[in-house]
Design brief:
Number of helices: 18
CATH topology of the domain at 96-188: Serine Threonine Protein Phosphatase 5, Tetratricopeptide repeat
CATH class of the domain at 96-188: Mainly Alpha
CATH superfamily of the domain at 96-188: Tetratricopeptide repeat domain
CATH architecture of the domain at 96-188: Alpha Horseshoe
Strand content: under 5%
Order of helices and strands: HHHHHHHHHHHHHHHHHH
Structural class: mainly alpha
Number of strands: 0
Distance between the termini: 70 Å
Helix content: over 70%
Length: 433
């Protein structure tokens, strides 16, 4: 016990340090401290939920969901992670955008690895447009700008990363390199030297002005007028004709250049139109695949939560809740191997013993005079597994409570579905034929 308390205290210390780092926008440092907290105590709910929030803030939505789902499985009671998951499920567009961004980021990474830098930059700009806090996309975009020697754009991307995660190690290293390339590092060092400089001005630093000989105003006016006359003469006699010829030649050259550029632009426009048609087709195909993926993902989450809810209800002995969730489950829609395995285990319990236990609870309630409770227990027992005995008991209590129509229907079902059962003859007698 002393060892467990020590581990819990260590985990709490790491959590408090991580919380302080997160408040200072040092998300990378906070994430490392929170991972250490979970290493010492995996049940540290606050650390796991905060780690999920940090992942979400940095654009890693999938990692955030993993942390919150684990948190719910370990500690389901009064867990804030339930609220986070519910908010995301209420806004399916978030999952769609994040899934789309992950695919586009991976595609951009593939483009970058195969020297298709233009397509990679285009994809990353789309990702950042949808998820401005996606740190990995900003860093990859800055690397592509650095490869193309576009240092200013690279610096802007890294600046955005440091606004999100103040001490991101990759962004800090790349920013130092960009500053050296742009001369920003020398400027900052010079400013620091000037700020912390304590050199005092010496007497020799003062420059004494020299005496200036004064000229009369009339002499100045005469000189200015003479200069204007000479300038106009030279301009009209020598410079103007040559300037006109140069201007005409320059205009002709510019006209030829503009014509060539226009032809090239038209050709490029045609190429871009064809490329755009191809990209639109690819976009439509990817969107269709993404829609299918989103539907499958939402279905998986709903099925998983239902199965977990059934397990939790069985573990706490809440058989009514387990029966409600089990009968509402669409078993034919479950195709994932892990979920099929969970369903098989639950089904063997529900249809092997739980329905009999509900039948026994119904009989106990009936004997105690709690007819409504008995009716409910028998009903859930029949919904889980229809057998001659529980169906007959359900019909008998319905008959006792005056629900003659429903009781007769169930008596007929016993006779029709289980004709060789001893309850078939009892059903006929109770039915009156």
């Amino acid at each position: 016990m002393k060892y467990d308390i020590t581990l819990e205290r260590i985990a709490n210390c790491y959590y408090n340090l991580g919380l302080e780092r997160a408040r200072l926008r040092d998300l990378s440092g906070a994430a490392e401290l929170l991972k250490k907290a979970l290493h010492f105590d995996k049940y540290q709910r606050e650390a796991r939920n905060l780690l999920g929030l940090i992942f979400f803030e940095m654009g890693e939505v999938a990692d955030a969901l993993v942390q919150w789902v684990i948190s719910m499985n370990l500690l389901p009671e009064d867990n804030p992670a339930d609220y986070f998951l519910e908010q995301i499920q209420r806004k399916p567009a978030i999952l769609r955008i994040c899934s789309d961004n992950v695919k586009r980021y991976n595609q951009a990474l593939d483009y970058a690895q195969h020297n298709n830098e233009d397509l990679a930059v285009f994809q990353l700009n789309q990702v950042i447009g949808d998820s401005p806090n996606y740190v990995k996309a900003h860093i990859l975009l800055s690397l592509l700008y650095m490869r193309r020697s576009e240092w200013v754009k690279a610096g802007k991307s890294l600046y955005l990363v440091l606004k999100i995660d103040r001490n991101n190690p990759k962004a800090l290293v790349l920013m130092d390199y960009v500053k050296k390339k742009t001369g920003r590092a020398e400027v900052e060092q010079s400013r620091l030297r000037n700020v912390f400089s304590h050199r005092k001005m010496m007497d020799d630093d003062v420059m004494m002005p020299q005496e200036v000989k004064q000229i009369s105003p009339w002499a100045v006016s005469a000189l200015l007028l003479l200069g204007v006359v000479i300038s106009l003469f030279v301009f009209y006699l020598l410079m103007l004709p040559a300037g006109i010829r140069r201007a005409n030649s320059k205009n002709n050259q510019e006209m030829i250049s503009y014509t060539e550029k226009l032809d090239a632009a038209n050709q490029k426009m045609g190429d871009l139109s064809a490329a755009n048609a191809g990209l639109q087709k690819e976009y439509d195909e990817m969107k269709e695949k993404l829609d299918r993926y989103e539907n499958q993902n939402a279905s998986f989450m709903a099925q998983y939560q239902s199965l977990v809810g059934i397990n939790n209800a069985l573990s706490t002995g809440d058989l009514t809740q387990a029966a409600q969730l089990y009968t509402a489950l669409d078993q034919s829609a479950i195709t994932d191997e892990s979920l099929v395995s969970m369903l098989s285990s639950i089904k063997s319990q529900m249809e092997g013993s739980v329905y009999l236990r509900l039948q026994e609870l119904g009989s106990t309630a009936w004997n105690a005079g709690r007819l409504e409770e008995a009716l409910q227990d028998y009903t859930w027992s029949v919904k889980i597994r229809r057998e001659a005995e529980n169906l007959f008991l359900l019909a008998r209590i319905q008959q006792t409570m005056g629900n003659t129509t429903e009781a007769n229907q169930n008596f007929d079902s016993v006779v029709g579905e289980f004709p060789s059962s001893p309850y078939a003859e009892r059903a006929r007698q109770a039915r009156g034929y």
